[in-house]
Design brief:
The complex is a heterodimer of chains A (about 300) and B (about 350). Chain A is an alpha/beta fold and about 300 residues long. Chain A has two domains: about 220 residues, P-loop containing nucleotide triphosphate hydrolases (Rossmann fold); about 60 residues, Alpha-Beta Plaits (2-Layer Sandwich). In chain A, the strands form three sheets. Chain A has a six-stranded mixed beta sheet with strand order 6-7-8-3-9-10, sandwiched between helices. In chain A, helix 3 packs across helix 4 and helix 9 packs across helix 10. Chain A is elongated and about 75 Å long. Chain B is mainly alpha-helical and about 350 residues long. In chain B, a hairpin with a 6-residue loop joins strand 3 and strand 4. In chain B, helix 1 packs across helix 8. The chains are: A alpha/beta (about 300), B mainly alpha (about 350). The interface between A and B is medium-sized, with 28 and 22 residues.
Chain lengths: ~300, ~350
Amino acid sequence: MEWAIEASGLEKSFRDVHAVRGLDLKVAKGEVFGLLGPNGAGKTTSLEMLEGLTKPDKGEIRVLGLDWKSHGQEIRSRIGVQFQSTQLDDRVKVREALALFGNYYEKARPVADLLKLLQLEEKAESFQSKLSGGQRQRLALGLALVNDPELVFLDEPTTGLDPQARQSLWDIVRNLKKEGRTVLITTHYMDEAEALCDRVGIMDKGQILQLGTPRELIASLNQPSYAELEFQGAGPDVGPFAARLGLPVEVKAGHWAVSLSEPRQDLQKLLACVNELDLPMQQLHVRRATLEDVFLHRTGRSLRD
Amino acid sequence: MYLRMFINQYLMGLKLTSRVPAAIFWLFAFPTVMLLGLGTLFGGAKEGPKLVWAHAAAGAPVDDFLQQALTERGVKIEVLSPAQAEERWQSGKLAALLEGDDGHYSLRVNNYLMMQAMQVEALVQQGFLMAQAKVQGAGDLARVPVVRSSPGGHHDGPYAAFLLPGLIGLNILMMGVFSTGMVDVTMRDKGGYKRLATTPLPRAVYIGAQLCVRLTTVVASAMLLMLIGALVFGVHNQGSYFGVLLVIVLGGFCFASLGYLLGSFARTVESYNGIANLAFLPLMLLSGVYFSLDSAPNWLQKGADLLPLSPVLRSLRAIFNDGASLASQGTWLVILAGWTVVIFTLAVKRFRWV
């Protein structure tokens, strides 16, 4: 296996904050890898260490088989980094920005090709500050692609975008994979990770808690489905129901959540209990487990907290 | 490769600067307005001092001699009746009012218009002495010939000539402390440097191109000032253009470095404003941008000469106004170079990309 990123034992502290505590990560060439976690999990710091922006206090990093200390310039010329915003002067035009960044590399993709790829041809002569959120995010991605990079870092590329803009960005990312590039993406959207990533790492408090394909992670929960019972108003006392059902019941705002490890039997039992206790249930909602549940299970917290 | 990066970065920097209205204002409009405004305001009246003479009946020979003597010295005399003259005096616009005739004169001078009044008073005293001498049959008295000049030179500079190098210096100061420092802080605060740090663009190329953009703007603005000085005020460079350019470039380099140094102390654009003004105000006030500090206490002058802007202004004025050679400015250039080395070294040491 050829690795695009190999990191082991990464540690980083800022004054009193221990941001990254022993991060181990290997990303294969051609893989789309997602780093998942809530704000403050240490995603951005980890990314910045891998991008050569921040020196780790401890640990080893090899990017494309090279060491930042000895081959920094070569790594920089072969990777592309997208930030959460473009970080450009307000008065630079789209075409100029792409040309300017192309100028930083020995070989750069023609600006016209990039404009087409990003669907920004009509905006080529617009100031970047006049672009919509989605267009600006695409330009930011374009700046990361000017040098035809083998490895692309994307930091929360769809935060704050509307569904349509997210879709068009996802298409570009899927295309990157088709072209054989390696992509490391951070996000706190579970659906994004499920839709794009070959493998994901769930990160919290500066560590990777679990690694695997989205399917593996969900399967590891051993709770493929969830039932959610909704009541009108405050809802009845959960005690008798939980005792009769014999399954863990979580009381949430507005509903009860029951994890079903054997959906066929458990669901029947659940309905029987509702009938026997004559609970004023309004709605029953059954859904499969998601990465969100994996995260909740591993950390006891919701991702958006 | 690096040369191509440098040139493109430099051209883009110029292009972006030209798109910022505030930058254009401070670089070009502000110094132009200052030069035109202050140069005209303190340029002195072209038609010479005015004097109103109130006397009832003309005719005594001493009156004629006095009038002749004053006219020769460029005083414009308006003769009015005492009543009219009194009315004019009370309007407050008269600097001086001469009353009486046939050798019995008195002069009222307006305390509120001291500059003009003192000049008229001196001329009237002088003219009266000459008139008396003439009446006693002494004939024409000789005067000591006077040449208006600036020290060491042959330039009968109006105030605009003094002001022009001052404004060039002010521009250099503002370029460094405001433009350069502010852009530096913004780039770091908003992550622009971080963005660049992930590309192979070497920082030296980026910073070098930025410096050249700044130097270009101060040189361009100095050229504009000189053009206006020549066209409007007839002020010309008495020394070598190379000398003027060298002082501007060296000064520009020093103050751009100062901008980077100050920028390294601020985390946000907001906090930088305070730091910038803290550096800007004393430098502007103490270095003699608008007025000579020659009448200030000695210790203050000595201290101000050690500030980095003073050598820039002193050398510029010596070369531009007095035609001094670059070599004669050695001491000032050494002080400036010393500042540049110290500030540049500190700026490099404190510069952070992230």
